[in-house]
Amino acid sequence: MIGTERHESRRIDNQLRGRSGRQGDPGQTKFFVGLEDDLMRIFGGEQVTKLMNFFNFPEDQPLEHGMVSKALEQAQVKVEGFNFDIRKHLVDYDDVLNKQREIVYKLRRKMLMIGKETSENEMKETVLNTFSSEIIDLVNVNFAVEAKPDVHKLAEEISLIIPVSVDHIKDHIDNKPAEQVQETLIKMIENAYLNKEKEIGKALWHEVIKNIFITTIDKYWTEHLTAIDDLREGINLRGYAQLDPLIEYKNEAFSMFEKLLSDIDYEITRRILRVQLVQTEDNKTHVHSMMDQPVTYKSASQIDPYAKSQQTKSIPEDIQEIQTVKKEAVQTNQDQDQIQEGPGFRILPSGSLTKKPGRNDPCWCGSGKKYKRCHYPN
């Protein structure tokens, strides 16, 4: 077996040597290496060149001294160690995202397998724990130690979670310490949860909870993965500031993951208890979200004044009348984009009216900059 060069890994050379043996015959192997090969040029090629020039060896004379073979093996050991460090470093980066993935997928699977692997009590406990953590955070923010408790602001935040008036909430939490306020609000949420379950029905209510949890987790998890990829691409630049990129990556990823969990809890708690039954003309019961839809911002250059009129002309009059009746029955907004279909009900997810711009698209604020240079990531 004749080799025209030496590979940077000894394992590959040994595999090639093994090809020379057949049926008990070990065979012979011979490698030819030039001084201009990458392996010799980077690791010790100049020393061999100086040696040949000192002894005035002709250029066509081969060198078969053990020193040359030893220098090649040392070069291969250095390259193998460098490649091992690269793979080990990559595993360290992947472990950060794998731990986050385990936490998110565990919650998602728990809600996905309601009625199979997850019992009703476990599902209810998970939902109430989500509400409890959100209530505790709101109370801690508005009941600071040094400042005066902002009861009105807290009541406004709670009214986004429970569909009751602000005055009704203030009557229950006014002139009470933080601990009693937390207990009172948690009891109000438990009562609202039980009332909503009786109003909608246990089976349909569980489907609503499952759908809201899964759609919210999927939405924010995909955005988190995109942000993590962007962070991974540029984290090595922290090395110029004498910082360890791996440690900086772990710190940034941890902060982003905490924000991910808080965003998921924030949207879930403000959607679950604000659903209502809507009876349509086909005598089917749908569940419609009462959550206020965010305002859609668009720059003037992206608005096509003829798009809506052309779509209206292309639709027959009979179909237009049917669509108008359905819109009035469901009481949707004029800017409604789409409604996600579910088994036996419909849920209008928040953010469905706004199409997420691409990284290179103009930013929605109208500044003229690209989205990735302006408001991405938030």
UniProtKB/TrEMBL annotation:
Q: How does it sit in the membrane?
A: Peripheral membrane protein
Give the chief site where it resides: membrane
**The keyword ATP-binding is assigned to this record:** yes
Highest taxon of the lineage: Bacteria
Q: Give the SecA family profile domain ranges.
A: 1-64
This protein's cofactor list reads:
Zn(2+)
The record's GO CC annotations read: cell envelope Sec protein transport complex; cytosol; plasma membrane
According to its UniProt record, what is one Pfam family this protein matches? Answer: P-loop_SecA
- Kindly state which keywords UniProt assigns to this record, in alphabetical order: ATP-binding, Cell membrane, Cytoplasm, Membrane, Metal-binding, Nucleotide-binding, Protein transport, Translocase, Translocation, Transport, Zinc
In terms of PROSITE patterns, this protein maps to:
SECA_MOTOR_DEAD
**Record's InterPro entries?**
P-loop_NTPase, SEC_C_motif, SecA, SecA_motor_DEAD, SecA_SF2_C, SecA_Wing/Scaffold, SecA_Wing/Scaffold_sf
Annotated membrane-spanning segments are none
Skewed-composition ranges (Basic and acidic residues): 1-16
An example GO BP is:
protein targeting
Q: Does the keyword Membrane apply?
A: yes
Family (UniProt): Belongs to the SecA family.
This protein is called what?
Answer: SecA family profile domain-containing protein
What is the species listed in this Swiss-Prot or TrEMBL entry? Candidatus Roizmanbacteria bacterium RIFCSPLOWO2_02_FULL_38_10
